[in-house]
Design brief:
This protein is an alpha/beta fold. Helices cover 32% and strands 18% of the residues. The protein is built from four helices and five strands; from the N terminus they run βββαββααα. A five-stranded mixed β-sheet has the order 3-2-1-4-5, sandwiched between helices. A hairpin with a 5-residue loop joins strand 2 and strand 3.
Length: 171
């Protein structure tokens, strides 16, 4: 499924400190070495539709990750929604682009649902503790957990639904 009318968020996961030390891996969110992924969820349903990564957490800001892959998967009339870290690209709407309070509220609800996905991913010990194996294999564990989480969404444990839903991209 291609991203379109989606929400993008960056998530960090701990890894062992690389040797030799490099500040490129330092996560400002976690205060230690980490890999970063961009998780793309559908605004209307909350389904996970794509992910982008892994990237060194200190070297790849939100907007750079978006421009690396997700932006190019959007069709001409499609946009994405992101937080303030994504400001600076016309293909992504941020809270600064909200037209009114209801529009901003719709963005907040979609963002909260993406954080629900993040919490469900972090229930897995493999993503909640520093990854001890080769960091180049982290994406294998991450992808497996994303697929299992999406299967759970489709089979009786979906993310919360937004009542009185207003699509912040179309509104």
């Amino acid at each position: 499924m291609q991203p379109g009318n989606c929400l993008c968020r960056r998530h960090h996961f701990k890894i062992n400190e690389p040797s030799p030390f490099s500040k490129d891996w330092m996560s400002h969110k976690l205060g230690c070495a980490a890999v970063a992924y961009e998780l793309v969820t559908c605004i209307a349903t909350g389904d996970i539709i794509a992910y982008n990564g892994p990237f060194p957490a200190g070297k790849w800001p939100d907007l750079k990750m978006f421009r690396n892959k997700t932006k190019w998967q959007l069709q001409r009339a499609e946009w994405a929604v992101g937080d303030r870290g994504y400001e600076g690209d016309r293909k992504i709407l941020t809270p600064a682009d909200a037209k009114n309070r209801q529009h901003a509220y719709g963005m907040e609800c979609a963002s909260a649902r993406n954080e629900t996905c993040n919490r469900r991913l972090r229930r897995w010990t493999a993503l909640n503790v520093p990854f001890r194996n080769c960091r180049h294999k982290h994406h294998l564990i991450f992808r497996a957990i994303v697929v299992i989480t999406q299967i759970k969404f489709e089979n009786g444990s979906p993310p919360f639904q937004i009542n009185h839903y207003i699509d912040p991209v179309i509104f």
